[in-house]
Amino acid sequence: GRSPFEFEGDLKKTFKKVCLIGMGRESFAPPKELEQEGLEDTLDFAQQLLSKASDRLGRQISCRVKDHKYFTDIDFEQLGKKLVKPPYVPRILNATDASHFDVRPEDDEKVEPYTGSNHIF
After folding, report:
1. Which of 1, 44, 90, 116 is the 20 to 30 A CA-CA neighbour of 53?
2. Of residues 45, 63, 50, the one with CA closest to residue 5
């Protein structure tokens, strides 16, 4: 996936856009990819999340987010019990293996490796 806000990597512009939508001063303009046939639930979900804060999906009861049509095929009870088989399980070489992520030009910043528990691997 990608961010619904693309401002040439300018985080300040992205933050400003999100805030203006949250305040109701601007509205979410969905990317053309979400306006394709068969993605109606995806588009509706994105629009309900990226809306004025007072109108946002889950604003009063967060569990309502799971009730959206976008999640119709998800069995949250089974998921919570970790009984849902993932459609794809990447082969992870070690706790710092990032080979399944795209490398972007702005990713040249040095980041300290994670040294915590890797029990989930």
Report:
1. 1
2. 50
